[in-house]
Design a protein that fits this description.
Layout lengths: L1 E5 L13 H6 L3 E4 L14 H14 L5 E5 L2 H11 L6 E5 L20 E2 L17 H10 L3 E2 H4 L15 E5 L4 H9 L4 H5 L3 E5 L6 H4 L1 H14 L1
Parallel strand pairs: 1-2, 1-3, 3-4, 4-7, 7-8
Antiparallel strand pairs: 5-6
Length: 228
């Protein structure tokens, strides 16, 4: 199965370099997606530009692909599902949840000169980064791509309720499946509360398992592909 891989904030497509061979060894065709504004120097990129890039990869896929979003890009993956519900086998959300209609995509940190730079490790102390050593943290920070304001402050627009029919797998790295279920039940994740098929999968990792647990993450993605 084709597996589309969408990295979260500050990541370019190379974030999946360690996951790609693991998925290939499991018989799948991984497709890391290069997002406008995250690696190509296009600081004027918008959320719509990123959605268009994901949809182009989806339309070029063989058969019905699995769409994988990480962190903030869980919303980006969900936007693609909303736009093409009939063309998606399933969606995997790693370490995050999709925003609902009308929310700003990722208005999370200070915007400086039209971009949202990586804010440093302070906001991610604890379970998010516990499995990253100092060398890995330094490498991440050095490679982090500032996210264009037009992406971070883009408005999420959802329209097709057929998205709720698409199977969802939530990969729980820095939080547990029980916590995720509590958040869904409490109404904190209204999109998943309405989804008809949601599986919660535990993964012992921090917020960036593509770097620290690539083989284990690939096995989880392959399992989601089988289920889809």
């Amino acid at each position: 199965m084709d597996i589309l891989l969408i990295g979260g904030l500050w990541l370019d497509a190379s974030a999946w370099d360690d996951v790609v061979p693991e998925l290939e060894a499991l018989g799948h065709r991984p497709v890391p997606i290069a997002l406008p504004g995250q690696g190509d120097g296009a600081t004027s990129a918008t959320l719509d530009d990123q959605v268009a890039a994901v949809l182009a990869a989806l339309d070029a896929a063989s058969g019905k692909p699995l769409v994988v979003g990480h962190s903030a890009a869980c919303t980006l993956a969900w936007l693609a599902v909303d736009a093409r519900p009939e063309k998606v086998a399933g969606v995997v959300l790693i370490g995050g949840f999709p925003w609902d209609d009308g929310k700003l995509y990722a208005d999370l940190f200070e915007i400086t000169d039209g971009v949202m730079p990586f804010p440093g490790w302070g906001p991610f102390e604890g379970p998010d980064s516990a499995d990253l050593d100092e060398q890995a943290k330094d490498a991440f920070a050095a490679a982090a791509v500032p996210v264009p304001e037009g992406v971070a402050r883009g408005v999420v627009r959802l329209a097709d309720e057929r998205r709720f029919d698409v199977p969802v797998t939530v990969v729980c790295p820095e939080f547990t499946p029980a916590q995720a279920q509590q958040w869904i039940d409490a109404g904190d994740v209204p999109e998943l509360a309405r989804a008809k098929h949601v599986d919660l999968v535990d993964l012992d990792a921090g917020h960036w398992p593509m770097f620290t647990r690539p083989a284990e993450l690939a096995v989880v993605l392959a399992g989601a592909a089988r289920s889809a």
